[in-house]
Amino acid sequence: MVETDSAPGVDWPAAIFSQLKAAGVSQISYVPDAGHARLIRMAHGDPSIKTIVLTTEEEGIAIAAGAWLGGEKSAVLLQSSGVGNCINMLSLANSCRFPLLMLVTMRGEWAEFNSWQVPMGQATPSVLEAMGMTVFRLEKPEDADEMISNAATLAFSGEQQIAVLISQRMIGRKKWVSK
Amino acid sequence: MSAGTLDRRAAVKMLLQNRGETLVITGLGSSTYDTFAAGDHDANFYLWGAMGGAALMGLGLALAQPNKPVLVITGDGEQLMGLGGLVTIGVQNPKNLTIAVLDNGHFGETGMQMSHSGLGADLVAIAQSCGIASTFDVRDDAGLQTLREAVRDIASGPRFAAIRITNADHERALAPRDGVYVRNRMRQHLGLPIM
Questions:
Q1: Is the ipTM of this complex over 0.90?
Q2: What digits encode the pLDDT tens for the residues B20-56?
Q3: Is residue B1 part of a domain?
Q4: Residues from chain B contacting residue A92 (CB–CB below 8 Å)
Q5: Range of the domain at B60
Q6: Which chain B residues touch A72 with a CB distance below 8 Å?
Q7: I want to staple B116 with a disulfide (CB 3.0 to 4.6 A). Which of A11, A20, A138, B121 is the partner?
Q8: Searching chain B, which residue's CA lies closest to the CA of residue A26?
């Protein structure tokens, strides 16, 4: 029940990781999500990345601001349910024009079994946009390379606050029972 | 806890004497005013919002600048909103980070309501249980001087200090609120490019 049956084909978590590295990201913070499990493992396995487990997603927004202040680039991995936890902290990125790159795995939108995930999942794009963020949708594994490369440039060179929402369809159905 | 005897403004001024290469992040409210009143500096970043974020911003900065001391100066209310961050910091274990909480046991900016610290929570014990082994319970000038020396040591953190201050109020000292300006100023101080 921890892992999901990610769709076969393009290895999009590896594509995301290699684009984050190419963009010079050296800090990756996260609240775990099954959809991000491979990316999190790759981050922990790479000694050149400082990988930071968070207790709540808003911590990652503050860490990213501090990282940029000190000359490093930081990305935040979270699930759509964690977007709500970030709302007021996003004013830090917005007020100070701190670059921000959030990669959000979506719940509550595709083959969702758990109705509790639906309200925050459905509200995620509008909540982020209400806080001044630019929102992209990653719907297809083969678009991961180009999407993350674009988002990272816009965030770190354009000094924008960017969220990439990774479609639940890409992540696959969650297995609720072992058989 | 709390109910200290130190004056917050004098305490912050003493803590920042001979600060050397120390980079400073301040929590919103009185901690920002106290730090600005002690003397503006290119290596100060003043928060005016983002409550609960000061220590975490210090973490990101400390990881990015491991050869410089990073000092977070914040209040008990601000730190209480981000208590989980102490666990995150304990796990990361940045040797160059010090979190100094000006603890008067009250929410000073909003009408002096009692905080959890004033109502019995012990922030020093909480920090220790979060894995921050080096802690300071500062109640006098000698304690402040010990803490000041420790801040400059980038090999033995992370540290957490509760500075027990009175809840005497001071005139607000209005640090710049333009976040882009303050951000760019620190980046230039560190030799980093700005847009």
A1: yes
A2: 999 999 999 999 999 999 999 999 999 999 999 999 9
A3: no
A4: 47, 49-50, 53, 57, 179
A5: 8-189
A6: 60, 63-64
A7: B121
A8: B64
